[in-house]
Prior knowledge:
Elements: H1 2-23, H2 26-42, H3 53-72, H4 94-109, H5 112-123, H6 128-135, H7 139-158
Helix pairs in contact: 1-2, 1-3, 2-3, 3-6, 5-7, 6-7
Amino acid sequence: MExxxxxxxxxxxxxxxxxxxxxxxxxxxxxxxxxxxxxxxxKFHLWRRGSDLRAWLFSIMHxxxxxxxxxxxxxxxxxxxxxxxxNVPVRADQEDGLQVRDVHAALGCLSQDQREVLLLVGLExxxxxEVAKILDVPLxxxxxxxxxxxxxxxxxMAGGAVPALRVVK
Length: 169
């Protein structure tokens, strides 16, 4: 079990990064990572030694995230009143910060399916086969969503004006 703990620890930074991109804010991302790790440790007996632990963890995170969306779809979305929750992180170079904000807003305009595939392939640098396994969709669906998502992202970014930020559930 100790070895399993060490193996999981190696993947926590990537899980956090993906969770932050999915959830949109730190608090929800931290909760998503915690729920993912809790489920992984509880389902440790289901992991097959020799299989890709990263893909298994990302599959768990995807399922936890989707289940959370399903549960909250009936409840109204509430925004936290914390001042820092409404701010987009800004790097030292203001122009770069604006580009990051625009890309973040543009990603928020994509469908959930397209956004997930773009983040897993682009941000997490996963192979299409891994993404298909994580999202439990055919390989062709991954490639189609990625192609459509990239094209939609290009259209939004080329338009110059990114639609107003929307809350991503």
